[in-house]
Amino acid sequence: MARSLKKGPYVDEKLIKKIQDLKAGDNKTIIKTWARRAVITPEMIGHTFGVYNGKDHINVQVTEEMVGHLLGEFSPTKKFIRHGGKMQREQEKK
User: What pLDDT does residue 90 have?
Assistant: First the structure.
């Protein structure tokens, strides 16, 4: 479910402070965050975030198309390896 419109989007205050503390042209610095539920705002465009997925920080370069989405959407928490079985092994041999 989406957050109530009267409350507005959730943006982590510490994350905004980290962005403001960076120098104006310093877009190459990776900002580590655990706030997967934070909404991407226009101030974040061009910055790189290290979003935690439960094991590692995955680098996410924010673009204009990402505004309004959550940071966690771009840092998958599960890794699909493959389905197993006899048929799968036969297909891989070919």
Answer: 83
Nearest to 75 by CA among 47, 46, 35, 30: 35
Record the pTM: 0.78
Backbone angles phi, psi at 32, to 5 degrees: -80, 140
Q: What is the DSSP letter of 13?
A: H
Contact 82, 88 (CB under 8 A): yes
Q: How many residues does the chain have?
A: 94
Reported as a single tens digit per residue, the pLDDT across 46-93 is 999 999 999 999 999 999 999 999 999 999 999 887 777 788 888 888
CATH of domain 1-77: 3.30.860.10
